[in-house]
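Q: I have 162 residues here and want to know how they pack in 3D. Can you give me a structure?
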Amino acid sequence: MFKKITSFFLVLLFSLFISTSFSNVFAATLTCSDDLTGKVFISEFSSATNPEWVELMNIDADNSVDLSNCRIAILQRSGSGLSSVAKTLTGSLPRGGFLTFSLDYESLDDAGAVLSFQDSTGTNTYYAVSYGSYTPAQTVHVAVRHQVVSLPKYPMEPEVGI
């Protein structure tokens, strides 16, 4: 009886060891060549600090994201037209994690802009968010991976910290 119980616990411990030791073996690292729609979001940003910053969130609990071929694109008003700048990203976004990037000083217009997470060429936009006080008539259309979404620009409510 003691041998059966001991054997059972040894098998149980070995199974736990194997499942925890090799759980990351099957996890993949995604890149911006993969479809990251619904996996990576712009979770926070600040246009009122120096330096300005953007935070990305990876909600995929199984896969990290290699950001070496990704960028944050900023589309905003410039005089009577629009201007666009992009920050090429580096590093790895951990699975279920966050990563913050500083931007060049005054990259973000305090009046409003559209920030988008894209591949390095800007061909694929995986997530976009807008802020500011533009009227709905000044809505910018951003193609987000096979669909066009309208991003009306309304003032954001300030985030309350805990």
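Q: Anything worth noting?
A: The chain has one helix and twelve strands. The radius of gyration is 21 Å.
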